[in-house]
Inverse folding.
């Protein structure tokens, strides 16, 4: 396993309903990331289709594996890179059950997927109308380290990232489609989640305007001490690479020993009281 | 939450950037050649002209000035010209007087004393001009409704609200005024009394019966689910004033929505036919 990796944050705007155009963008940027020596490239939530496609999700969703994932597998194999991107996933067992999924592909094929657990259905969001929530947090042991996945609104729930961290994740990747009016929350939460878990957190957000909803970008890599190590532009497409050094985890964990100081008995109380809310 | 004027403060540079990006992307995405707007000499349309020019360039913005003899006001025309010159937008004047006369004369039921019904003809006629130009020149029609008017239903159904985009509809009037000054629109114009110009000497604040400074704070509180009592107590005003605003806001939802149809089919337009707008 590598102790240092180079990460590419691909902050793109998606062409809504145009999977071919978005796949081409994913391919072009993955080749660009390879040229720049990256090990892994991350694209935003639902970057395959765009975020505001409403009823068209029923036409656009694909199974995993499926045509899109096969194409990204071929891309990963050709470039030797790992690729994370977001897409609407159609259940293998039904015709209209869809998940908001982060897909993780490596040079040897599909590594795994994460189905978004917390689906915002308030304000401008209508995810529960279309998606079934996931029921599992995920962490993958890969050649690039232990990597966990989460999606956008999951960041508001510290237990999701804590679970991912307790499963062993050293780098947590959060793909997102966050609108501009919520920028302030995410700027705080990305740092807080990294710091409280003493883990690297890579956040990749969508940009562009979809049905009046403006996505703010600002993708970033946050250190295990909560420092923003790299940050993409606000509101515009951007591409940047940054380095993750797992060696820094020990320094962070000794100085900020939140994992050592965990109190498991509180989690029982948390369960008890959350059921009574 | 404290209901003070400071809650309506915002970063106007950020607001300008976001609105300009919204206009620019919309125009590009639908393949239009630019923007059409009505320029009345009032603050909302002046702000829209400025934002549109900053978004897509003045050469791609055509502002129609639509005077008519009953309501003719040289000052408004002059103010409109000041804005058009400053932001280098193209202008054209269409005198609506003869069209309006024809309308009045052709309606057997027409009642010249009913100024509201008559005034609404003016607002809807302006819409017809704007859409003719938009259609002919492949430009989107940019509406200039603000949040205060929209929430209060203070507009003509299928008239001034008819547009392809409404870039300042999520800003209260007092915010629009500040944005206007930030954009470089003369303060005198930004602070002059708003009017829909449907009849002579009509002003919005007289008709609404409340100052925008107070109205906007009431609406801000309602937007955030505050109780009428709480709003009234914080603003040191009678609860009846807040209630009156609330009733008007709720009663006008029909003006803000598409026409309603009885549910008959599998998916219904305007109801559960939920499609994205302008994918590309």
């Amino acid at each position: 396993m590598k102790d240092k990796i180079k990460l590419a944050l691909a902050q793109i705007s998606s062409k809504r309903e145009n999977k071919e155009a978005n796949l081409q963008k994913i391919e072009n940027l993955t080749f660009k990331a390879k040229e720049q020596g990256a090990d892994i490239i991350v694209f935003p939530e639902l970057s395959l289709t765009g975020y505001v496609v409403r009823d068209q999700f029923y036409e656009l969703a694909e199974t995993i594996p499926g045509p899109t994932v096969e194409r990204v597998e071929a891309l990963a194999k050709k470039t030797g890179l790992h690729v994370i991107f977001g897409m609407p996933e159609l259940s293998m067992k039904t015709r209209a059950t869809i998940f908001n999924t982060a897909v993780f592909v490596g040079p040897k094929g599909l590594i795994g997927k994460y189905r978004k657990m917390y689906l915002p259905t308030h304000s401008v969001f209508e995810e529960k109308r279309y998606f079934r929530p996931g029921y599992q947090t995920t962490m993958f042991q890969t050649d690039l380290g232990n990597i966990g996945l989460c999606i956008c609104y999951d960041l508001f729930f510290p237990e999701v990232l804590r679970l991912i961290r307790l499963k062993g994740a050293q780098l947590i990747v959060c793909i997102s489609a966050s609108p501009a009016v919520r920028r302030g929350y995410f700027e705080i939460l990305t740092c807080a989640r990294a710091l409280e878990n003493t883990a690297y957190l890579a956040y990749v957000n969508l940009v562009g305007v979809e049905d009046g909803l403006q996505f703010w970008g600002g993708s970033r890599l946050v250190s295990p001490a909560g420092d923003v190590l790299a940050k993409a532009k606000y509101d515009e497409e951007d591409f940047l690479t940054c380095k993750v050094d797992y060696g820094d985890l020990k320094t962070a964990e000794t100085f900020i020993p939140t994992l050592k100081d965990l109190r498991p008995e509180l989690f029982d109380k948390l369960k008890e009281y959350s059921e009574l809310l | 939450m404290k209901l003070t004027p400071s809650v309506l403060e915002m970063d106007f540079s950020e607001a300008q950037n976001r609105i300009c990006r919204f206009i620019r992307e919309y125009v590009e995405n639908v393949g239009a050649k630019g923007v059409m707007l009505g320029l009345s000499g009032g603050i909302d349309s002046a702000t829209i002209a400025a934002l549109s020019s900053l978004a897509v360039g003045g050469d791609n913005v055509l502002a129609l000035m639509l005077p008519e003899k009953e309501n003719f006001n040289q000052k408004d025309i002059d103010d409109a010209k000041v804005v058009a010159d400053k932001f280098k937008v193209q202008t054209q004047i269409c005198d609506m007087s003869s069209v309006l006369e024809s309308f009045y004369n052709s309606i057997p039921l027409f009642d010249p004393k009913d100024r509201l019904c008559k005034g609404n003809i003016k607002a809807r006629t302006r819409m017809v001009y704007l859409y003719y130009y938009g259609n002919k020149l492949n430009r989107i029609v940019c509406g200039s409704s603000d949040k205060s008017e929209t929430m209060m239903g203070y507009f003509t159904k299928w008239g001034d609200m008819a547009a392809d985009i409404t870039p300042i509809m999520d800003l209260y009037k007092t915010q629009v005024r500040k944005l206007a000054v930030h954009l470089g629109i003369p303060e005198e114009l930004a602070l002059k009394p708003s009017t829909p110009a449907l009849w002579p000497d009509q002003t919005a604040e007289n008709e609404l019966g409340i100052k925008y400074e107070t109205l906007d704070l009431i609406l801000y509180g309602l937007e955030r689910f505050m109780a009428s009592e709480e709003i009234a107590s914080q603003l040191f005003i009678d609860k009846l004033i807040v209630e009156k605003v609330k009733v008007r806001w709720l009663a006008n939802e029909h003006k803000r929505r598409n026409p309603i149809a009885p549910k008959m089919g599998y998916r219904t337009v305007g109801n559960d036919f939920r499609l994205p707008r302008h994918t590309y």
Remarks:
- The CA atoms of residues 207 and 236 of chain A lie 6 Å apart.
- The longest strand of chain A covers residues 82-90.
